[in-house]
């Protein structure tokens, strides 16, 4: 069992469990006093912990020893146009598994979803981080309009603009040529990018239009494919 805790972790520390975590650990997973598990909080590495107190509404963990020091995820963001709820959840979960540091829902002209439940996406990111063994939970940013995002853009971060029109070069070639550094993958909605959005992105020196192949992928598939290509070309 691996649990994300919103508390400082240090030698000889004792951590109180929130009600939902106590429920998960003692009711769902049937753990009891003396059981051992791994915990992390995104800043203090990973720790072996032992259950010191177990109740239905709370409990306490005693930290035994640090098992891994804190590391930093690659400097990779995913910026994606939200789609239907379940598919947006899937994108947040996979972005976490694929090692993104930040996840940004972006409203584009053809985005159908008008609202994004950021807390829900954060909960999915926490669950994915617990499951996949990483030491940080990616930050889930508040949704932002594409125009606004680009107006404030830091040109030092390159954008892998996933362009379904086929005008871009293969993503792997683009990534290998541009090389390491801060990156953001950008994927569009089911309706694709509007022509003026695509034109604006193509005109940005830090944005690299890229193709993910001759097939039009669903938005959630495109996000995972682009992140996998980034990891294979640049990441670790
Ligand atoms: N309605 C659009 C069309 O038919 O041309 C398809 C949009 S696609 C379902 C959603 C997003 O996935 C696109 O905006 C793009 O970012 C990404 N995408 C899908 N297939 C792609 C490909 N072959 N190359 C690059 N990006 C792709």
CATH architecture of the largest domain: 3-Layer(aba) Sandwich
Instruction: Describe the main β-sheet briefly.
Output: 8 strands, parallel
Small-molecule components bound? S-adenosylmethionine
How many individual helices? 7
Mean pLDDT: 96
In percent, how much strand structure appears in the residues?
Answer: 25-35%
Characterization of this structure:
This protein has 236 residues and is an alpha/beta fold. It has two domains: 2-68, Ribosomal Protein L25, Chain P (Beta Barrel); 76-233, SPOUT methyltransferase, trefoil knot domain (Alpha/beta knot). It is built from seven helices and 13 strands. Strands 6, 7, 8, 9, 10, 11, 12 and 13 form an eight-stranded parallel sheet that branches. A five-stranded mixed sheet has the order 1-3-4-5-2. The longest helix has 15 residues, at 118-132. The two termini are 25 Å apart. The model has no long low-confidence stretch (mean pLDDT 96). The structure holds S-adenosylmethionine. S-adenosylmethionine is lined by residues 162-164, 187-188, 190-193, 211-213, 215-219, 222. The site of S-adenosylmethionine (SAM) has 18 residues, from helix 7.
């Amino acid at each position: 069992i691996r649990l994300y805790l919103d508390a400082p972790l240090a030698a000889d520390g004792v951590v109180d469990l929130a009600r939902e975590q106590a429920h998960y650990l003692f009711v769902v997973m049937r753990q009891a006093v003396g059981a051992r598990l791994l915990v992390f909080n995104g800043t203090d590495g990973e720790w072996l912990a032992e259950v010191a107190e177990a109740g239905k509404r709370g409990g306490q963990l005693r930290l035994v020893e640090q098992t891994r020091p804190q590391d930093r995820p690659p400097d990779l963001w995913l910026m994606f146009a939200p789609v239907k709820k379940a598919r947006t959840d899937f994108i947040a979960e996979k972005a976490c598994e694929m090692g993104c540091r930040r996840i940004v829902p972006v409203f584009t002209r053809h985005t159908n979803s008008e609202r994004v439940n950021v807390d829900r996406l954060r909960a999915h990111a926490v669950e994915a981080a617990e499951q996949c063994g990483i030491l940080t939970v990616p930050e889930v940013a508040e949704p932002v309009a594409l125009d606004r995002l680009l107006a404030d853009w830091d040109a030092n971060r390159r954008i892998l603009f996933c362009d379904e029109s086929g005008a871009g070069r293969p993503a792997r070639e683009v990534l290998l040529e541009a090389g390491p550094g801060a990156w953001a993958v950008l994927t569009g909605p089911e309706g694709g990018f509007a022509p003026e959005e695509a034109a604006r992105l193509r005109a940005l020196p830090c944005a690299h239009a890229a193709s993910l192949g001759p097939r039009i992928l669903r938005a959630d598939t495109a996000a995972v494919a682009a992140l996998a290509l980034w990891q294979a070309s640049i990441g670790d």
